Amino acid sequence: MVLRGLSIIVMVVALFLIALLAVPGHLFAAEPEPVIRVALLQAAPAVTFGVNGTFQIIDGATGRLIGVPAREETWGIEPSGAALRVFRNGTLVGEVGGPVSVRASGRVVVLQGAGPAQVQRPVQGAFVVGADGRVNPLPRERERVTVATATGTKALAVAGESGSLSVRVDGAWRNYRGDLEIRNQGGALLAVNELPLEDYLYGVVPAEMPYTWPQAALRAQAVAARTYALRHLQNPVHQHYHVCRSQSTQVYQGLDWERPSSNQAVDATRGQVLLYNGQPIAAIYHSSSGGYTENAEDVWSEPLPYIRGKVDPFDHNERHYGWRVSLTANQLVNQLAGRNYDFVRVTDVEVIQTTASGKRVQKLRITGIGLNHQPRTEIIANADRVRTALGLKSALFELHKETDPVTGNLAWVDIVGHGWGHGLGMSQYGALGMAQMGFNHMQILNHYYTGVTLRPDYGC
Asked: Where are the alpha helices (DSSP H) in 23-95?
């Protein structure tokens, strides 16, 4: 009887949503909120997790329910050949083919009107057509939205808790929204956090930009991060996930780092993305431009028409201007070796080309003696390779050399520079400066990204 009653409820709500879309004047095509997959752990020997809320642990290969974890329990997954062993509080529960999915199951839809109806199922990614004719995301807990029906208006709400996951990452417990998937990849584990894109951004924006900064800057960061993520949804970095949690894509710290101000910036720009020729751009950004941004091909290799260099008068800060690095000849040898430029001795370092701005070093010539004790010359290009080869905050620097008065060989180099990061796209400190001067987030984005269009609804 319970299952029969549940089926009736599902049918009622389905017919209700169909009725919404059938109302004259309320036919709208909308792109639902995308879902993104983030690699939390790669090549891990084990995955340990717990839950805060109602979840189910499922064998992804068969759909079989493995267990319903309680809040106080600790669950673990370990590889066993090509399979996965599942542990609860250290006790073996069983072995499955996998992957193992940990899915939220505690939120319910509540339709208020002639009588409440409840559907015990996850509601991520759902949306409704509002009485004002706009497409609205399904509300979060304790929120309500009025929707139009053929017979008038009704209220739709979400009850219960969406819950969160606790995953042991880098030796510490970290909390995340969404679901978790664990896969065995050749005897090591991959743990992927799957969640709605906007929830993902809640954990990205305050990790990439201080949450105390003005709303205009935070909103510009939210749009850039959303656009960057959407591009990776179309071009994933791996077959099982779209992005990583580190700077290799963009930093994602999950629920622990969320703050009201940064969440507000995400909500205020919901669905807004930057397009060029109708496609999401690679909305790259960096901390501080040092006063100049660059053309993409000068810093990396591929030209991008919307990443063009320009003078950046808005970037002013004391942290990343006038920094200094001094390296002896031996320290320089060790630094270069860490980037696979191997020398026994470095005899000279010479700047041979700068970027279009004339400020960053695009090509650097290293002369010395190689490991075979023969003369060796290495040309390092482009600007970002120069920056990382020397271990610098930026490739925007001036190089001063001192030679040994006896041997005439290089004794040390003294480097004075400005900025932090690759210098492409949006400068975050520049966004701060523009926000403090009264510019809004659209003006900030149009300054740093050339020829782009800001579109709602994920560009659809």
From this structure: none
What pLDDT was estimated at residue 446? 97
Q: Are residues 407 and 262 in the same domain?
A: no
Report which residue type is found at 394.
Answer: S
Gap between the Cα atoms of 230 and 279, Å rounded: 10
User: In this predicted model, what pLDDT tens digit does every residue of 357-372 receive, in sequence order?
Assistant: 999 999 999 999 999 9
458 and 364 housed in the same domain? no
Task: Say if residues 236 and 39 touch (Cβ distance below 8 Å).
Answer: no
Strand 47-52 and strand 273-276: the pairing is: unpaired
72-89: pLDDT as tens digits? 999 999 999 999 999 999
Of 110, 130, 133, nearest to 120 by C-alpha is 110
**CB half-sphere exposure, 160, CA atoms < 13 A:** 20
Question: Can you list the alpha helix ranges (DSSP code H) found in 90-214?
Answer: 197-202, 205-208
Residue 399 CB neighbours (<10 A)? 15
Q: Which amino acid type is present at position 84?
A: L
Same domain as 138, residue 12: yes
Order of strands, edge to edge, in the sheet holding 273-276?
279-280, 273-276, 453-455
What radius of gyration, in Å, describes the C-alpha atoms of the chain?
27
Tens of pLDDT along 171-205? Answer: 999 999 999 999 999 999 999 999 999 999 999 99
Q: Do 312 and 435 share a domain, yes or no?
A: yes
Distance, first Cα to last Cα, the chain: 43
Query: What is the rounded CA–CA span in Å between residue 66 and residue 300?
Result: 47
Query: Which residue reads 């201007």 in tokens?
Result: 321
Domain holding 214, by residue range, is: 203-317+421-460
Biggest CA pair distance of the chain:
96
DSSP 8-class letter at 257 = G
Nearest of 396, 400, 404 to residue 413 by alpha carbon:
400
Note whether 337 and 391 are within 8 A (CB).
no
How many domains does the chain divide into? Answer: 3
* CA 30 – CA 456 distance, rounded (Å): 11
Beta bridge partners of 398: 416
How far apart CA 129 and CA 134 sit, in angstroms, is 6
In a 10 Å sphere around its CB, with 0-12 CB exposed, 13-18 middle and 19+ buried, how is residue 303 labelled? exposed
Position 141 scores a pLDDT of 44
Q: Return d(Cα 412, Cα 415) in angstroms, integer.
A: 10
